[in-house]
Amino acid sequence: EVQLVESGGGLVQPGRSLRLSCAASGFTFDDYAMHWVRQAPGKGLEWVSGISWNSGSIGYADSVKGRFTISRDNAKNSLYLQMNSLRAEDTALYYCAKAYLWGDLEYWGQGTLVTVSS
Amino acid sequence: QSALTQPASVSGSPGQSITISCTGTSSDVGGYNYVSWYQQHPGKAPKLMIYDVSNRPSGVSNRFSGSKSGNTASLTISGLQAEDEADYYCSSYTSSVRVVFGGGTKLTVL
């Protein structure tokens, strides 16, 4: 059974940093691209970032480019999102998702909540 | 990188069919056959319903179907059931290995 478990969310002040993690199990992690998608309270889904199986291809939404960094450790079956210079508008539930090929997100975690507030 | 355009809401009666549209540009929906559709019930994670425009993952009912014409993709749900009431999102691959989502459509089963 595929499992994706996010962690690392919490309350953080504007301008500070936070690192999210996603622990994957139930599939061959290093065969698949992985993504982060966020959802602000009461709002729609927003793609944040994606990374290919070997970290050779990485993409970011314009809204986070230059502030967020996605990475993965295939030896640890883990996906990460380093978030710097956080803003109030980054407040959201952050989902980790496994891709079937690239943008088709076939499995999702339950999310970790990030709240940016002073 | 603008969001894809979806109607805010659609509704239908049990047994009827409904279609949700998803309009983008030649840089996303129109340029690639990589459109996906997701269903999200309140408080739950999204679920992949359609990928690559018209393919259904294993376990998804054949009442769900997808298509594309030009810059607009569509999700059709036939034989509406009460359990189909949810939010639906489209997404598309776009340039520079990015993905863009639609704003979401709330489906109400009357």
Structure characteristics:
heterodimer, A: 118 residues, mainly beta, B: 110 residues, six-stranded mixed β-sheet, 9 strands, 0% helix, globular
Describe the structure concisely for a colleague.
Chain A has 118 residues and is mostly beta strands. Chain A has strands spanning 3-7, 10-12, 18-25, 34-39, 45-51, 58-60, 68-73, 78-83, 92-99, 105-108, 112-116.
Q: What does this entry look like structurally?
A:
The complex is a heterodimer of chains A (118) and B (110). By secondary structure, chain A is an all-beta fold. Chain A is 0% helix and 52% strand. In chain A, the strands form 2 sheets. In chain A, strands 2, 4, 5, 6, 9, 10 and 11 form a 7-stranded mixed β-sheet that branches. In chain A, strands 1-3-8-7 form a 4-stranded antiparallel β-sheet, with no helix packed on it. The N and C termini of chain A lie far apart (40 Å). Helix content of chain B is 0%, strand content 45%. At the A-B interface, β5, β6 and β10 of A face β3, β7 and β8 of B.
Give me the secondary-structure topology.
The complex is a heterodimer of chains A (118) and B (110).
Chain A: E1 3-7, E2 10-12, E3 18-25, E4 34-39, E5 45-51, E6 58-60, E7 68-73, E8 78-83, E9 92-99, E10 105-108, E11 112-116
Chain B: E1 9-12, E2 18-23, E3 35-40, E4 47-50, E5 64-69, E6 72-77, E7 86-94, E8 98-101, E9 105-109
Parallel strand pairs in B: 1-9
Antiparallel strand pairs in B: 2-6, 3-4, 3-7, 5-6, 7-8, 7-9
